[in-house]
Amino acid sequence: NIIDTPGHVDFTYEVSRSLAAVEGCVLLVDATQGVEAQTLSHLYLALEQNLAIVPVVNKIDLPNADPERVVHEVMKLLGVGKEEVLLASGKTGTGVREILDVVIEKIPAPSTDASPDLRALIFDSKFDEYRGVVAYVRVVGGEVRRGDRVRLLGTHAHAEVLDVGYFHPALVSSDSLATGSIGYIITNVKTIKQCRVGDTIVSEKSQSLEPLPGYRSLQSMVFASIFPQEGDAYPRLREALEKLQLNDAALVFEPEHSPALGHGFRCGTLGVLHLDIVQERLHREYNIDLVVTAPSVAYRIFLNEAGAASYLHRVKVAVAPQFITISSPHDLPEPTHIDHIEEPWIRTRSVSPSDHVGNLMQLFNDVGGEYKTTEYLDEGRVVLEYLMPLASLLADFYDKMKTVSSGYASLSYDMETYRQCDVERLDIVIADERIDALSTMVYVKDRYRIARKIVETLKDTVPRQLFEVKIQASVGGSVIASERTSPLRKDVTAKLSGGDVTRKRKLLDKQKKGKKRMMHHGKVTLPPEAFRAVLKR
C-alpha cells in the first residue's frame, strides 16, 4: 500500500500517524524548489519512526529544474551516495519503474505483533454518506472480522464491525484483516469525532491492552469568526460547516452573535492554511459569501483573587481553575481580574538562499523571535531555527518573509510551549459603535503603531456617508488613535435660481442639522475588506 500524505506543516500530525502505519517512505523533493522547511519537518518524523527512506528528486522535466543541485542537497541531508538518490518525473513517467524496484528491494516486509489480541492503528478516516465512518487502519496485532465487537481506546467508543477489506485501489470487501495488513474497517460509529486519526482499535473483550504510541487529541491553534454576508445564509453556513466537519475532525465551531454582523460561527483550525482551506471550500462548494475576522490564538488567562471570585460567581463551580483559555478577544476578562497572560510559542524552521539570511534574521528579531541554530544544506542554502510567538505568524509574517527573501524562503513550525506575554485588547469604534468583530489582541509595546495603521486603513475602506464618520481605536475605553471620513455633500441649493440669500442659508442650516442627527443615529455598513484591515500591521 502507498499512502499519499499532505506536505503542509498544518497537517504534521496526520503525516506522523501515516508514517506510523508503514515500514518505509519515499521522500519526494521538487527539482525546482530543492529541500524546503516542510521537507525537513516530515523527514525528522520518518527518522523518529526508524523508517527506510527512498530519496527521489521529482519534476526533473521542468525547464527551470536543477536536479544536480537538489541531488547534492539530499545527499548532504541524508548522508547517502549519489547513486541512492533517484530522479523522476510524474508527468512523463521517467524513473517510476526504478522507484518501485527500489521500494521492493529496500523497504522491509510488515512487522507483526506476536500477541493474538487485536490492535489496529487508525491512520486516516473519512465519512461515507451511505455507510458512515470508514476507518483506514494498519493491523499491528491479531485479526479483525466482520461482526466483531470493538472499542476505540482514545475516544472510548464501542462499535460493531460491519465490513472490512483492502484497497485495490478502490475498497474491496474481505472476510478479515490479518496482522500486518493495511485496509479499512466500517463500523456503526456515525461521527468522525469518535473515530479519530491516531486512535487504537481493540477487541471489546480485551481490557488490559495499551494504546499504540503517539495518539493525541487534535487541539485547534488558530481561531476566527465566520459570518455570512447575507443574513438568510446562516442556516446554509451551519449545514455546510457540519458537512465539512464529517471529513475533518480537526475543524471545530460554535455559534456566535455579533451586533454588527449578526449570527455566525467561531471556528478553530490547525493553522492558517487549514483556515484558508475551510474558507475556500465554503465559498467554492457551498457558494456562501463570507466575512472572516482576523485570526487569533488561544491565550491562557491566569486570574488574580478578584478574577477567581468573579469566575466562581459567574460559572457556579466549586474551585476556580489555574487558568482559563480564551480564543476570542471578547472573552478577555477585566484587566483588574488578570494576574498575567500566556501565549503559545512555536519552534520554526526556515529554509532560504544564504543571500537572504540577514534579512530573515532581522524579520524574526522584529517579531520577538529567539534564535536557536543555523545549519547550511550546501554553500547556497541555509536552515534557520527560531522560537517565536504563534500570534506573530498570523498577521502578515508569511508575506513579509516572502518579500525579504524574494519569494524563496519556506517555513515550517511545531507547537513548543506557552510563555508569559504583555497583551491587551484593541477595540475599534466606528460612528460611536464598537465593532466587536474588529477587536484584536495586540502587544502593549505595539498598540499605538497598530492602532494608527488600522484606523488609517479603515479610513480608506469604509464607504463615505452623508455625515462625518469617526473611526477610533481604543484600549480600555481610552481612544489612542482616530480618523474621520468627510461627508458626501449634496447641493441643496441647486434648485434655487436666485432671490434672497437668506433662503440659501436656511437650506444649508437645515442640511447641517440633518447631518448632526445622522451622526447620532446613522449606521455604517462595513464592506468585507474592512475586516481584513486588522491583518495589515
Briefly note the structural class of the backbone. alpha+beta
Percent strand equals 25-35%
* Terminal residue distance: 47 Å
**Overall morphology:** globular
Describe the protein.
A hairpin with a 2-residue loop joins strand 26 and strand 27 (478-485). The protein has five domains: 24-106, P-loop containing nucleotide triphosphate hydrolases (Rossmann fold); 119-203, Translation factors (Elongation Factor Tu (Ef-tu), domain 3, Beta Barrel), CATH 2.40.30; 222-292, 2-Layer Sandwich (Alpha-Beta Plaits); 300-421, Alpha-Beta Plaits (2-Layer Sandwich), CATH 3.30.70.240; 425-433 and 444-535, Alpha-Beta Plaits (2-Layer Sandwich). The protein is globular and about 100 Å long. 26% of the residues lie in helices and 33% in strands. The model is unreliable at 517-522 (pLDDT under 50). The protein is an alpha+beta fold. The strands form six sheets. It has a six-stranded antiparallel barrel with strand order 4-5-11-8-7-12. The two termini are 47 Å apart.
What's the short story on this structure?
The chain is built from twelve helices and 27 strands.
How would you describe this structure in keywords?
537 residues; alpha+beta; Rossmann fold; Elongation Factor Tu (Ef-tu), domain 3; Alpha-Beta Plaits; six-stranded antiparallel β-barrel; six-stranded antiparallel beta sheet; 26% helix
